[in-house]
Design goal:
The chain has 63 residues and is mostly helical. The chain is built from two helices and no strands.
Length: 63
């Protein structure tokens, strides 16, 4: 996880980060992370929906 954070922090086009600040909003990293998360969820949902039909056919043959 640390490597991913370092990678995204180098891609951020924002201003220099003040280490003494309480909290810094990094919208670019948040946006990229959200898009990656959404893509993984969409891929897994399609995989589960497409794979569910094969499981149902397998159980109907056993009975």
């Amino acid at each position: 996880m640390i490597h991913v954070t370092k990678y995204f922090s180098t891609l951020s086009p924002g201003a220099d980060i003040d280490p003494d600040a309480d909290f810094v909003y990094d919208y670019y990293t948040l946006r990229v992370g959200g898009l990656v998360f959404a893509g993984v969820i969409v891929f897994l949902s399609i995989f589960l929906l497409a794979g569910g039909s094969a499981v149902c056919d397998f159980f109907s043959v056993i009975e």
